[in-house]
């Protein structure tokens, strides 16, 4: 005979939670300094004096005053003169991210972190902790009591519906969304509200006469595949609440490591672009080494002032963990695929084809192999100093100006802090 708890778990299905932190960056600052920020309109943004400063996220008190993510700081301050602008602190955010995910991980080893402030949990085998509702309530309560952070939790039979459920009640909500609920709850909503469908896809659907999720669910699969290819099959299934994607354990090796930087002012001068690429190369290489991986490919991301985004990538002849190699490839990709007279507002580098360093044969140049042990020793020393004193305790001279390609390769460093004038849109270093 099944217990009361067993009755909440399907015999042939899954139970998925989506834990989504509410206004995460602002909530972290409020948790750190409640006397300063609690209940007040706050926003995290960078370079508040410059014209390109944008709101990265804002508190719910700020949202009630008309502030929203992506808004320029100047406009936000006109709408809400008492808005408190906070400079981003990504090391602090990662600390809290690891802490809330540690709490979530206590209820199942099947945890998949998808960003710094959200994760999926497959709790199908977690009956010992209670019903799905009880588990969600306990996770939410512990995150609040132990970290002073609010979160919303979605409960569903798959990741798609769990994600959409967590958005239904914010802040501090817990929502259940079953497949049988989809027609009643979702079908009258615009297609753009279905998780995974962006603005351009929604516009293309409208041109086909498909305006709502319900209309999408009832559209012939052949019609969608003609217009969208294989993704058309996924869209029809998603509109009907069907999603078979598994929750990938966090222990699975990262498929890529990336970092992007949104700039306070558009840049196009070669030396400015190279300096930014150099800084990003150093950051992603450091994270690569931290995970004891090497990269077999490099991809760059460029975003224009009108928000057009392009990516270009290339496989490397030899896997690397070296910032100089990454920087050289990123610089080549930029020069080949972008014109120096065109301004950019965002730059990013993503390392691809990652493999464990222990399993990779890194070929050394005939004239460089004798220097390699010294280079690795110096790199390890720099990493150790940064671990102890912070990322900006040691910087390459190229980041401060002048011929960065040579300076990085030779590791000429200065013990100085590098003042960042841009908003870090962090490529996520998840726990």
UniProtKB/TrEMBL annotation:
UniProt-listed Enzyme Commission number(s): 2.7.7.7
Residue ranges of domain UmuC in the record: 16-198
Keyword Ligase tagged: no
InterPro entries reported for this sequence: DNA/RNA_pol_sf, DNA_pol_Y-fam_lit_finger_sf, DNA_pol_Y-fam_little_finger, DNA_polymerase-Y, DNApol_IV, PolY_HhH_motif, Rev_trsase/Diguanyl_cyclase, UmuC
Alphabetical keyword list: Cytoplasm, DNA damage, DNA repair, DNA replication, DNA-binding, DNA-directed DNA polymerase, Magnesium, Metal-binding, Mutator protein, Nucleotidyltransferase, Transferase
Cofactor dependence: Mg(2+)
Coiled coil location: none
One Pfam family, short name: IMS_HHH
Chain residues that bind Mg(2+): 20, 117
Active site residues per record: 118
Molecular function GO labels: DNA-directed DNA polymerase activity
Major site of localization recorded for this protein: cytoplasm
Cofactor note: Binds 2 magnesium ions per subunit.
CDD domains: PolY_Pol_IV_kappa
Catalytic activity: DNA(n) + a 2'-deoxyribonucleoside 5'-triphosphate = DNA(n+1) + diphosphate
Site description Substrate discrimination, residues in chain: 25
Location in the cell: Cytoplasm
Family: Belongs to the DNA polymerase type-Y family.
Subunit structure: Monomer.
Function: Poorly processive, error-prone DNA polymerase involved in untargeted mutagenesis. Copies undamaged DNA at stalled replication forks, which arise in vivo from mismatched or misaligned primer ends. These misaligned primers can be extended by PolIV. Exhibits no 3'-5' exonuclease (proofreading) activity. May be involved in translesional synthesis, in conjunction with the beta clamp from PolIII.
Name of protein: DNA polymerase IV
Organism of origin: Paenibacillus chibensis
Underlying gene: dinB
């Amino acid at each position: 005979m099944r217990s009361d708890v067993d009755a909440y778990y399907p015999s042939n299905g899954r139970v998925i939670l989506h834990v989504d932190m509410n206004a995460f960056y602002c909530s972290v600052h409020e948790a750190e300094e409640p006397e300063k920020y609690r209940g007040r309109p706050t926003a995290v943004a960078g370079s508040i004096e410059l014209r390109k400063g944008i709101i990265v996220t804002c508190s719910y008190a700020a949202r009630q005053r008309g502030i929203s993510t992506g808004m320029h700081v100047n406009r936000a301050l006109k709408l809400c003169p008492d808005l408190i602008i906070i400079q981003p602190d990504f090391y602090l955010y990662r600390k809290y991210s690891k802490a809330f995910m540690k709490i979530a991980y206590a209820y199942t080893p099947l945890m998949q972190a998808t960003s710094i402030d959200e994760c999926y949990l497959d709790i199908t085998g977690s009956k010992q902790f209670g019903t799905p509702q009880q588990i969600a309530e306990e996770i939410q309560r512990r995150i609040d009591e132990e970290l002073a952070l609010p979160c919303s939790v979605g409960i569903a039979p798959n990741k798609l519906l769990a994600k959409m459920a967590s958005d239904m009640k914010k802040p501090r909500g817990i929502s259940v969304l079953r497949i049988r609920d989809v027609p009643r709850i979702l079908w009258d909503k615009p297609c753009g509200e279905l998780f995974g469908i962006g603005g351009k896809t929604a516009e293309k659907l409208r041109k086909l006469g498909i305006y709502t999720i319900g209309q999408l669910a009832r559209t012939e699969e052949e019609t969608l595949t003609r217009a969208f290819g294989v993704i058309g099959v996924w869209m029809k299934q998603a509109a009907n609440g069907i999603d078979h994607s598994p929750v990938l354990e966090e222990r699975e090796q990262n498929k890529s490591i990336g970092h992007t930087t949104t700039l306070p002012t558009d840049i196009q001068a070669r030396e400015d672009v190279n300096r930014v690429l150099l800084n990003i190369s150093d950051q992603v290489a450091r994270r690569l080494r931290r995970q004891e991986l090497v990269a077999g490919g490099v991809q760059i991301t460029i975003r224009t002032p009108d928000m057009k985004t392009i990516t270009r990538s290339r496989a490397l002849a030899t896997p690397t963990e070296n910032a100089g190699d990454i920087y050289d490839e990123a610089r080549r990709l930029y020069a080949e695929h972008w014109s120096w007279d065109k301004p950019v507002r965002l730059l990013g580098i993503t390392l691809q084809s990652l493999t464990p360093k222990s399993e990779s044969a890194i070929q050394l140049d005939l004239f460089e192999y004798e220097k390699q042990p010294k280079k690795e020793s110096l790199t390890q020393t720099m990493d150790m100093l940064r671990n102890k004193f912070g990322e900006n305790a040691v910087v390459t001279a190229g980041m401060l100006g002048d011929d960065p390609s040579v300076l990085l390769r030779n590791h000429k460093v200065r013990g100085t802090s590098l003042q960042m004038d841009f908003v870090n849109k962090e490529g996520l270093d998840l726990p």
